[in-house]
Structure formats: structure tokens, C-alpha cells
Amino acid sequence: MPMKLYYGKDLSAWNTFGMKVSCACFVEYSSVARLQEFWKAWRYGEHVLPKPFLHIGRGSNLLFTGDFPGTVFHSDIKFIREYGKSREEGDETAVPRSSEERPGTAGRPAESSGVVLVEAGAGVLWDDFCRWCADNSLWGPENLSGIPGETGAAAVQNIGAYGVEVKDIVRYVKCFDCVTGAAVTFRASECRYGYRDSMFKSGAKGRYVVTSVVFSLSAVPVPRLGYGHVRAAVEKVLGRPVPDVAGCPAGSAESSRLPDGLTASMVRDVILDIRNSKLPDPAVMGSAGSFFKNPVVPRSDYERVASVARLEHGMDCEVPHYDAGSGFIKIPAAWLIDQCGLKGFRAGNAGVYEKQPLVLVNLTGKASPEEILYLENLVRNAVVNKFGIMLHPEVEHV
Ligand code: EPU
User: Fold this and answer.
1) Coil, strand or helix: which one is 94?
2) Both ends of the chain: CA-CA distance in Å?
3) What is the structure's pLDDT at 205?
């Protein structure tokens, strides 16, 4: 079905919090051409669509604060293919999986540097894309495995985990311009990427709909194992040490020291294990991943946090932190919330996840938007009262 239009649709399955909310109208399209046709018909008054408009992926970074009075759009554009390989429009929903389709490894050779460009439709589940890359021995998104949501939203939100952000592997973002009705392509450098941010969610919010993303991947190993315990976990599986080759050019003498058996699939599996041990499975317990951003504060604020911690725990107490450049420090919000004693805190049907306090959860599956909002305020107040740091939600409130 190329185009679907529903009125009064239940959105329970369209937000990973599992909120029982609905929207006045829901539109789903399966290709850029269908979106263009629909847009033209709407401009000429053929469709009456309640406003406001909201484009969603899988609703994995959204908190619906009530029923949505307008029209929700969703892309069902699903394809993964080597960039530049044209297909008939009807093929767009096909996700190539056969060995003949392996980009860069079959048919056409990878660029001499090992770079392979792969394009994925906005509606491809992000983790399906990660699995496809790993299955095809392409490096790039393996550290981002297991993140809920879809490829288009990943490029809007600049998802990140375990030392990698999606902007690191995005080459182009293809969009539909809702003002002119034209298809436009942006280079990654034009997308104004920042920490969980891009022009698609700030300056140009609402103007562009991402239709597909072109990724720059590597056919030669480029493991990024520097975050937390990732290297140790990979070495445990491999049974031997893995040298740090981050920053060394692919194919260089340094990178050829990597042990045999180190594959993108293996790193992906390690990341999935780490995630499963820390984060709730959205299929079992509703959440939107990290609810708050990690605050980036001036050094003076960090010093204040450190003195509060020393007063409480003694002079040896270390506050985890990362240098964010220009005199700013990033402090893990999880640590701040943990220090307020809120890990595992429960308020009605909502709770602070017991293994990762940055995640607010729909504990019973029956949490209302009000319960999540109450908990959000409670956490923010606790952190600001104790440390003088205001947390800001990463999750978009609708
Ligand atoms: N920490 C605690 N108590 C806890 C858990 C963590 O004090 O119970 C402290 C520790 O000091 C730990 C630090 O928080 O070292 C950081 O924790 P973690 O490595 O789990 O990462 P995070 O900063 O809390 C970020 C992303 C996650 C991503 C992880 C791993 C944000 C807002 N969140 O969390 O992304 O998976 O790093 O890379 O940047 C998401 O965006 O939805 C998301 C899950």
C-alpha cells in the first residue's frame, strides 16, 4: 500500500513509552514520489488534514503529553542499497540481503580507502540497518547497535552511544522540503550536528522531512572500542588483547595489527550485551531511552558539584566528568540522579530505572503522561536543589 490515511488512530504502538494516546489523523507513505503527490494534493485542497503536523519515526524519543490534535506522518520508505545503484520505484521497500547485493564486496569494489557508501530509507529500523552492515562486514554503525527507532530519526536526533555519534558516519541526508515540495540533499557538514542535535530539530524544524540517509562505511576494520568497558568486553570474547588503533588510517600498518577474528558482528554483539544489561527492553518495559541530556556546564559549576560531593563522601570522592572543550565540562546526568538517591524510585506507574537512572520507565505499562511529567519534575527539582544543575530533557515533549 503506497499511501495510508487513518482518522483517530491509537498511537500506543507508535511511542516506546507505550502511552495510550491517539492522534486526529495519521498518514503513512512508502516513497518520495508518494509523499510528493500527497503534498501537492494537500496544497490544492484535496485532503483536509488537522493541524499541527508532526513527523515521527518509531516514537522512541517522544513523550506524548496527551492525545495529539493534529496529523502524524510516518515514513515507510524501506530500502538499503549501495549508494548510486538505481532501482525501480516499486523496489524501494525491498531490503537487499543476498550475497549478490553486498555493497563494495560483490560486483563493485569498495573505494581504495575501503570506504563504501550505503543508502538507507528513513523508515528502515535503525537496528535492522546496523545488523545489515555487520552481516555485510561493513564497519561504522556497530557501536550504535540496539538503539530503538528508525534511520531517518537517527539522522535528525544525531543518536549516539559508546563513543560514536551517527554524524560520524553520515555523508548525505536526503530530504523532502515541505515549503517548496522539492527533494533536497544536504552534506553532513551542512546539517549543523551537535550533541543529540541537528538543524532538522532546531533552526529548520518542521521544514525538512528526511527521506533517506547516505552513510560512509568502511570495508576494512575501524573498531572504536575506547568508551568505558567496551575494549575489555571485546577482548574477553576474543581471548586476546586488541591494540588501540583509533585515529590510525584504515589499512595502515597500525590497523593491520588488529587480531584476526575481530569483526563488526562481534563488536555489535558485545554492544548489544552491554545495552541489554543496562537498558530496559522497550518490548518489555516502556521508556524513551535517556530521558535527560548529560549537562554541559562551565567549570565553576562542576567545581560546585565536586564540593557538594566531597562534603558528603569525603575528600577522595571523584565526580565522573568529561572535558567538553572551551572551558566546559560534561557531567553524567545518571550520576547526578543516582546521588539524589532516586535510582529505582517509583511514583505510581512510573519509575526511575533501577540499572540506569537516566531512563524514566513506564513500570506497569499503565503510566499516564501526567505520571511521567510528575517524575520528570521531581528528578529535575532534586538535582537542582542538591547540585544547582538544571537537567534538560532529551526526549521531545509533544
Ligand atoms: N552512572 C551512575 N549511576 C548509574 C549509571 C551510570 O552514576 O546507575 C554514571 C557513571 O559514572 C557512568 C556514567 O554515569 O560512568 C555514564 O553512564 P553510561 O555510560 O551508561 O552513559 P550515559 O552518559 O548515562 C549516554 C547516552 C546513552 C548511551 C550511553 C552509552 C545520553 C543522554 N545518553 O548515557 O544514550 O547509550 O551514553 O554510550 O547521552 C539515549 O540517548 O537514549 C541513550 C541511551
Assistant:
1) coil
2) 28
3) 85
